[in-house]
Write a structure and sequence with these properties.
Layout (H helix, E strand, L loop, with lengths): L3 H9 L20 E3 L5 E3 L2 E2 L2 E5 L5 H5 L6 H10 L4 E5 L9 H5 L1 H18 L2 E7 L4 H6 L12 H17 L8 E4 L36 H18 L5 E2 L9 H7 L7 H10 L7 E6 L15 H14 L3 E7 L9 H18 L4 E4 L21 H16 L4
Helix pairs in contact: 1-5, 3-5, 7-8, 10-11
Length: 404
C-alpha cells in the first residue's frame, strides 16, 4: 500500500508514469545532440549553435515541495522566447535533500519525470547536472570530500548508482541533450589556502560535523572523478555529449598544482589544464565565464572575453571536442559597477560567444529568487532585457544554420 506521501506526489504530478513506463517519455531514437567529427555539435544530425539558460532550481523546487510545479510556467515562458535548453541541478543540494531518493526512489523519480515530461512537451532541451555541490555526496555517504579521487570509495559507488538510475531512466527522452557531472569542482583544487576554503559545516543539513585536510581537493582527484562519471554514463548512453560542469581553470591552475603559487599560467598551460580536467570520454568541455575572469589572465590587463573564449575554442577543437559555456552572466551590484556595467558586460559576453563560434552556452540564471539582489532574471524584473537578447541571438544563430 502506498504511503500518503507517495499518493500526494502522484497527485501532484498528475499521475505521471513510474520507471517501468518510462518508454512513453520518448521513443528510442538517436540522441538529439551529438559531438561530430572535429568537435562539431550536431543537433538531429546538423551543425548547431544555441544559447540556453540556467534554471538551477527547476527540479529542486518540486523536490522541496511536490506541489510546486512552477517549472511548468517557466518552461512555457522560455519556449515561447525561443530559448532552446536549460541547465539545471538534477539532484539535491544538501545531503538532507536526498532523503526522498534514499527512502523512496519511485516517489523521487516521479518528481523528476514531471520535469522531463514538461520539457518534452515544450520542446525544451535539458542538461541535467547530477552532483551539483562537490561535498554533498561524500557527506551523504560519510566520507571526506577527497574520496572523489578514489575509484573504490563509497562516494564513487554512490555516483555510479545515481548516474545509472538517471541515465537508464531517461536515455530515450528527446529532452535530454547532454549529461553533466557537477558544478565547478575544479575551482577547489590545489589551493594553497585550502584550510580556509573547506566545505561548509551545517550538520542540520546533513553535512559532516567537521572538516580536515582529507576534504581538500587536488587536480588528480578532479580528473579521476570526471573520468569515472563519464565512463559510467557511457555504459548506458553511447551518444549524448558528456561534460564536467567545470569553470574556467583558475588563472594560476597549473602553478597551483605544480608549485602552490599564484603565478599566472601561460596560454599553453591554460589549454593543457582545460583538457586535463575534461578527460575522455567527456567530449563537451565546460567553462564558466564572468566579468572577473578576465582580470590578469595570461598576464594581460584587461583581456577581452573573445580572447578567453578563442583560447577555449582552440583547445577544444584541437582535441576533437566541443565547448560548452555552461554559465555566463554579469552581476549588477554596486561593487560590480551597478546595472549599467552589468548591461555592458552582458552585451560583450554575448557578442563574444557569437563571434568566437561557441556552439553551446547558458546564461546564469532564470527564476532563482535567492539571487534576486544581483543576477536573477525573470520576465518581469529589471533584467528581463537579457531574455529578449537571448531570443534575438538564437534567431541569428538559427538563421546562420538555416534553422528558421
Amino acid at each position: 500500500m502506498r504511503s500518503l506521501r507517495m499518493v500526494g506526489v502522484l497527485m501532484a504530478v498528475g499521475g505521471l508514469c513510474a520507471a517501468q513506463e518510462k518508454s512513453e517519455m520518448g521513443k528510442p531514437s538517436v540522441a538529439p545532440l551529438r559531438i561530430g567529427p572535429g568537435g562539431v555539435v550536431l543537433k538531429d544530425g546538423q551543425p548547431y549553435r544555441g544559447i540556453g539558460i540556467n534554471y538551477f532550481s527547476a527540479f529542486n523546487r518540486t523536490l522541496d515541495n511536490p506541489l510546486d510545479m512552477s517549472y511548468r510556467e517557466g518552461f512555457d515562458e522560455l519556449a515561447k522566447r525561443g530559448i532552446p535548453f536549460i541547465r539545471f541541478a538534477a539532484c539535491g543540494f544538501w545531503p538532507k535533500n536526498w532523503a526522498l531518493y534514499l527512502k523512496d526512489k519511485e516517489a523521487y523519480f516521479v518528481l523528476m519525470d514531471g520535469v522531463v515530461k514538461a520539457a518534452e512537451e515544450k520542446g525544451l532541451g535539458l542538461i541535467p547536472s547530477l552532483f551539483w555541490y562537490d561535498a554533498c555526496v561524500p557527506d551523504l555517504v560519510g566520507e571526506p570530500r577527497g574520496q572523489w579521487g578514489n575509484p573504490d570509495s563509497k562516494t564513487i559507488a554512490f555516483m555510479r548508482q545515481y548516474t545509472r538510475d538517471m541515465v537508464t531512466r531517461y536515455v530515450n527522452s528527446p529532452a535530454i541533450w547532454a549529461w553533466e557531472f557537477g558544478n565547478e569542482y575544479n575551482l577547489g583544487a590545489d589551493l594553497p589556502n585550502a584550510a580556509e576554503n573547506r566545505p561548509w559545516v551545517h550538520p542540520e543539513l546533513g553535512t559532516a560535523k567537521e572538516r580536515s585536510a582529507a576534504d581538500d581537493l587536488t587536480h588528480d582527484m578532479i580528473v579521476s572523478a570526471c573520468r569515472e562519471f563519464a565512463a559510467e554514463v557511457r555504459k548506458y548512453d553511447p551518444l549524448r555529449p558528456i561534460t564536467s560542469g567545470n569553470s574556467l581553470p583558475r588563472v594560476a591552475a597549473h602553478h597551483l598544482r605544480t608549485e602552490k603559487s599564484w603565478t599566472h599560467d601561460t596560454r599553453e598551460q591554460f589549454a593543457a589544464n582545460l583538457l586535463e580536467t575534461n578527460p575522455g570520454p567527456n567530449d563537451l568541455i565546460s567553462v564558466h565565464v564572468y566579468p572577473f575572469e578576465g582580470e590578469g589572465r595570461f598576464d594581460q590587463k584587461p583581456i577581452a572575453y573573445s580572447d578567453i573564449l578563442s583560447a577555449c575554442m582552440k583547445a577544444a577543437k584541437g582535441a576533437g571536442k566541443a565547448l560548452f559555456v555552461g554559465e555566463f552572466g554579469a552581476p549588477d551590484t554596486e561593487k560590480d559597477g551597478g546595472p549599467e556595467a552589468a548591461r555592458k558586460n552582458f552585451g560583450e559576453l554575448l557578442a563574444a560567444i557569437e563571434a568566437t563560434g561557441v556552439p553551446l552556452s547558458a546564461l546564469w540564471v532564470f527564476d532563482l529568487p535567492d539571487q534576486n539582489s544581483f543576477i536573477n532574471i525573470t520576465p518581469t524584473n529589471e533584467r528581463s532585457y537579457q531574455l529578449e537578447e537571448l531570443t534575438r541571438a538564437n534567431q541569428r544563430l538559427g538563421d546562420k544554420h538555416g534553422d528558421k
